[in-house]
Specification:
CATH topology of the largest domain: D-Maltodextrin-Binding Protein, domain 2
Helix content: 25-40%
Number of domains: 2
Structural class: alpha/beta
CATH superfamily of the largest domain: Periplasmic binding protein-like II
Radius of gyration: 19 Å
CATH class of the largest domain: Alpha Beta
Shape: globular
Strand content: 15-25%
Number of helices: 16
Length: 345
């Protein structure tokens, strides 16, 4: 199944009655994806037949940001989503919608800061921007208000002695960040790969600091399951996780020294160029990829830190805890079936 990574979708365009069957033994699972390289494990699982082996046909539906997937998940129009642990997610859970964070999708261990802080190249070249303190008064692009990246920006501002009110935030899709930097509509951006590398390649921006330096080991992206998927299609949900973690392990085999340069890197690069709108393999050889735990383990401390930040900013509509949102049982069950991860040599 080939799908364009870059695009938008509205809730009205999603078919109702989400999880269906193509045949008696094949379940169609609607999967929300974002404009990020962290969708790669979904693509690997599809390309290499892992979903098919589990009796699943994955249908990929692109969104501008993970935060925009919350409503379709709550309405049962998506079964699975790969996005940000956002304010919208936590507020939905506080209202009684049982969306669950079930696995790691993208994090920032040392060397794998895949959502860097980009600064317009002319601001760097002119000397107008030298330190994080120079963020003051700038227009900075992000993906969605209340997404995990807003917590990243808060950490960057704190390191520069600033507060959120000291900058102007604009929320755009990641491909739009590239154009906005080129057109000087924004001064800086927190942009995920491969859009970050594309902005640099075009000469629009400079990678000033990786988010692994701004916010080390940040749980920036997660796999989400809809309530109906968990409660009424439990076996399919477990099968999906097994296929997903097999793909995550393949992805880990492609990593080396902060790049896609491991033993099977060319296979992963080939899959990315097939499934996304970026067809230049060199772009993917150049990007800084995300970290993804081969057992799907989540960084619970990071999730709690972000939730506390959202609460401190008055963004929460009700009381909710991380324990109420996270369900690690699917990943744990998959690991028992798959056994321990053994890196390819």
């Amino acid at each position: 199944m080939k799908n364009l990574l870059f695009g938008t979708v509205t809730v009205a365009s999603l078919a109702l009655g989400c999880l269906g069957t193509m045949a008696a033994d094949v379940a169609t699972v609607n999967v929300g994806i974002v404009n990020s390289s962290s969708d790669v494990a979904f693509f690997i699982a599809d390309k290499k037949g892992y979903f098919k082996e589990e009796g699943i046909e994955a249908k990929f539906i692109p969104f501008d940001a993970g935060a925009k997937m919350v409503a379709p998940l709550g309405a049962g129009q998506l079964d699975v989503a790969g996005g940000s642990p956002s304010v919208g997610l936590y507020n939905a859970v506080a209202r009684g919608i049982g969306i669950k964070i079930v696995a790691d999708k993208g994090s920032t261990p040392p060397g794998y800061g895949y959502q860097p802080l980009l600064i317009r190249k002319d601001l760097i070249d002119s000397g107008k921007f030298k330190t994080l303190a120079d963020l003051k008064g700038l227009k900075i692009a992000g993906s969605a208000n209340g997404s995990a990246s807003t917590s990243t920006m808060n950490e960057a501002l704190k390191k520069g002695g600033l507060k959120p009110a000291d900058v102007e935030r604009l929320y755009l899709s990641f491909p739009q960040h590239v154009m906005a930097l080129e057109n000087k509509a924004v001064d800086a951006a927190l942009t995920t790969e491969p859009s970050a590398t594309e902005a640099i390649r075009r000469g629009a921006a400079v990678r000033f600091m990786g988010d692994d330096q701004i916010y080390p080991n940040h749980q920036l992206a997660v796999v989400l399951y809809a309530t109906d998927f968990v409660e009424h299609h439990h076996d399919v949900a477990e099968a999906f996780m097994r296929a997903y973690l097999r793909a995550v392990r393949d992805y880990n085999d492609a990593l080396a020294n902060g790049q896609l340069a491991g033993p099977n890197a060319e296979e992963v690069v080939s899959i990315l160029t097939e499934y996304t709108s970026i067809k230049d393999p060199e772009t993917f050889r150049t990007i800084v990829p995300q970290g993804t735990n081969p057992d799907g383990k989540l960084n619970m401390d990071s999730l709690r830190t972000d939730l506390q930040y959202f609460q401190s900013e008055g963004l929460m509509e009700g009381d909710v805890s991380i324990d109420k949102v996270v369900d690690t049982s699917f990943a744990e069950s998959a690991v028992k079936k798959l056994g321990p991860y053994e890196p390819k040599k």
